[in-house]
Structure formats: structure tokens, C-alpha cells
Design brief:
Layout: H1 2-14, H2 21-44, H3 50-86, H4 88-99
């Protein structure tokens, strides 16, 4: 029943003397072009635009590089801490190089250039 009413309504619109298929096609094309422009604007400008995605990808890459660098530094520091905890040689080396300490009965020679 409803299909017949819709079909009858469409036929009455098309059969009206003022109906022009060219005008309705132009209106449809204008609406589609406007819709395309709106979608393009959202693609290139805004929160989730292409430029924003590129900027975020660059920021992620930089952060990953920084994380790798810090991870390597932390591993080196962890190895040094373990060496200081376990070995007397590392402690002796630090005492000699940073504090200028020498062992008992050793002679220290300083070469001045």
C-alpha cells in the first residue's frame, strides 16, 4: 500500500508541467560537488587531516629514536652498577682515575707536558 502511494507521488512530481530533468540533474551535480569539496576540506584541514597524521608519525619516530638511545644508556649504566657491585677491579679503577688514589707502597709519577 505504501509503495503504491510513493510511486503515485513520484509520478505526479515527474508529470508536473514545471518538472525539468536538466534542472534537477544540475542541482544533483551541484550538491555532489559541494559534498566532495566538504570531504576534501576535512581531508586536508582539521584534527584528523593528512598533515596532522604526518606530523604525528614524525613525532612518533623521534620519540622511538629517543627511547632507543635512553634504553642503550640505561643498559650501559646497569652494566656499570653490576660491575661495581661485583668486582673490586672496577672500584679500584674508579678510585685511581677519579679520585687520584694509589695503593700502599706504590710510587706515583706525574708526567707534565
Amino acid at each position: 500500500m505504501a509503495k503504491r502511494a510513493i510511486r503515485a507521488e513520484m509520478l505526479s512530481i515527474i508529470s508536473e508541467p514545471d518538472f525539468n530533468p536538466r534542472v534537477s540533474m544540475r542541482v544533483t551535480i551541484a550538491i555532489l560537488i559541494l559534498l566532495l569539496l566538504v570531504l576534501q576540506l576535512r581531508l586536508w584541514v582539521g584534527d584528523s587531516s593528512v598533515g596532522e597524521v604526518w606530523r604525528l608519525q614524525t613525532a612518533v619516530e623521534k620519540q622511538q629514536q629517543e627511547n632507543r638511545r635512553l634504553k642503550e644508556r640505561n643498559q650501559a649504566l646497569e652494566a656499570e652498577v653490576n660491575d661495581l657491585k661485583q668486582g673490586v677491579d672496577a672500584i679500584e679503577e674508579r678510585a685511581r682515575s677519579e679520585l687520584g688514589m694509589i695503593k700502599k707502597d706504590e710510587t706515583f709519577y706525574q708526567v707534565i707536558e
